[in-house]
Amino acid sequence: MKLKILSTSDVHGYVYPTSYSRRDDHRDYGWLRAATVIRDVQAAAGPDEVVVTIENGDWIQGAPFASYLAQRPAAEAALFTQLTSQLGVDVGVLGNHEFNYGQDYLRYCEAQRTYPLVGANIQGGSDQGILDAPYHLIERQGLKIAVLGLTTAYVPVWERADHLTGLHFQAALATAKHWVPRLHDLADVVIVAYHGGFEADLTTGEPTERLTGENEGYQLLTQVPGIDALVTGHQHRQIAGVYHGVPTTQPGDKGVAVGEITLTLDADKHVVASDAQLLTTANAQPDAAFAAQTAAVQARVEDWLDQPVGQLTGTSMTVTDPMAARLQGHPYLQFINQIEMAAGQTDIAATALFNDDVRGFGPSVSVRQVLNSYPYPNTLVVERITGADLKAALERCASFFTVVAGQVQVAPAFTTPKLALYNYDIYSGIAYHFDLTQPVGQRVTQLVYHGHPVQPEQTLDVAMNQYRGNGGGDYPMFAPAKVIREINTDMAELIRQYFAAHPVVTGQPQTNFTVTT
Question: Domain residue spans in the chain?
Answer without folding.
Answer: 2-301, 307-516
